[in-house]
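Worked example 2:
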Amino acid sequence: MTVDPRKGPHVRQLLGAHVLDALTPDETGAVVRHLRTCDVCAADYVEVAQAASLLALLSEDDLSE
């Protein structure tokens, strides 16, 4: 699953919205298709998804300190 990083647009700018399920169906499809062929964006997706999961563990008190 590799792609020449110089070919085609990458989807990094959409990954946060994708993780939060905030994309349109067309955007979601484009991101999913791209992630299947681009190791760079797929690795970035894992990092964004992990960060979002960790944010869910924070409490209001954690944020006010």
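The chain is about 60% helix and 0% strand. The radius of gyration is 14 Å.
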